[in-house]
Design a protein that fits this description.
There is one protein chain. By secondary structure, this protein is of the alpha/beta class. It has helices at 34-47, 64-69, 86-101, 112-122, 138-141, 144-156, 171-179, 200-210, 216-226, 230-237, 244-250, 261-270, 274-285, 291-298, 304-313, 339-349, 352-356, 360-388, 433-446, 448-451, and strands at 8-10, 52-57, 76-80, 128-133, 162-168, 191-194, 317-320, 333-336, 394-399, 406-413, 418-424, 454-460. The chain has 20 helices and 12 strands. A hairpin with a 4-residue loop joins strand 10 and strand 11 (418-424). The radius of gyration is 25 Å and the shape is globular. The relative contact order is 0.11.
Length: 465
Amino acid sequence: MFGCLNIIRIFAKSNGYYCNKEYYFKGMKFYNRENEKKVLGEMLMQSKREARMTVLMGRRRIGKTELSQRCGDDIVLYFFVGKKAETLLCQDYVREIREKLDAPILGKPTSFSEVFKFVLQLSESRSFTLIIDEFQNFLKINPSIFSDIQRDWDLHKRTSHLNLIISGSVFTLMTKIFEDKEEPLFGRANEMITLEPFTTDVLKQILEDFNPNYTSEDLLALYSITGGVPWYVTLLLDKGKTDKEKMLTALTEENSPFISEGKNILIEEFGTDYVTYFSILTCIASGMKTRSEIENELHNYNIGPYLVKLETYYKVITKSLPIFAKENSKKVRYQLNDCFLIFWFRFFYKYQALVENKALKALGEIIQRDYSGVSGFMMERYFMKKFQEERRFVIGKWWDRKGENEIDLIVVDPIQKEAWMYELKKQGYRYKENEFKEKVNNVLEQTPELRKMTIHLGSLSLDDM
């Protein structure tokens, strides 16, 4: 049926398909930030000649503060932008300056502009690092601070030796502050770093360090719950939750930080519309992939603008199409980008009545009961991420209009003109090669781009993780 196409049966693990990269780095349990630390080190060296500004962005709990503290400088000022009056913040910052630099400040500054200008002038005679954390909070405290920073930075940066590191966790606001041409700080940052979760290799290394006898089920549970976000990984492993059962149980323990975490992350992003956004995300996390499915569930046929914002502005969801489908295809599906948020909306928000009534034991039983359904989908995401991390493949899925015929994972090497089609089964023995070939025949009939490639068929299971 495929003409000159060469169909080869493969198993990714047995032929050594995945490259083995070294991702563990020395330090006090500090993993996978070597490239970022290198950039920070370069900025520190350059600041000895002239002031430098680095912006760290990323979701909450991704490790921005920990990374910034490891910039390599001996003297580091740390300004946290809490949600309180500007005059009170200035008192905190003055204490930090006095303690770290032993520098007297005349008077009692009441504006951040006064403090920042003093720091810049002080750094003309001595070099040091200033970290400003949760920088986006200035927007609510006093938006004119951004213009003040721009003015003083432009005036003093050439004579200053300040290594300025700015971090923020509300991605939409940080992007606006530094990437919107209309904003005063546009173009001022010398480097912008967006921190990502741990890679699959790093997650495996960390789990092995804590539990040398871990199973693939343990690894899948760690990935499903945390998505590789460092703070969540630490919450589990540092408390000895190193296997699947202990991890799942930890979620609903009394005072578990996981219970309110999703709301804490997103409510500031979404503002007063958060109920509508949360309802949509709950539907997607529960397996509703199309707009019509979500609309039918919510009895709301005006969710289009919300989906657009979730995708393009908040970047919480992704709109996906079958591999090689045209942009105007109607086979659109939606998915959440963040593993932890999938887990949180699927269980904690969906069953918020149990949370509010402190019926955590009942919620824990639901998680144990329904986890297997979620973990199958998470295993699919794990393998997609693993291939994406090699940065040389086009990764996708394929499904027909009715959703009846589907290929779990397609990996394309556009240079070598090869494509690997995988069926994912948690237990490898459930893979039926002849049945899978029939699905592949259907795909190739409808996807001419794939007919031009050498096609490899195979399966991936827990054993391949």
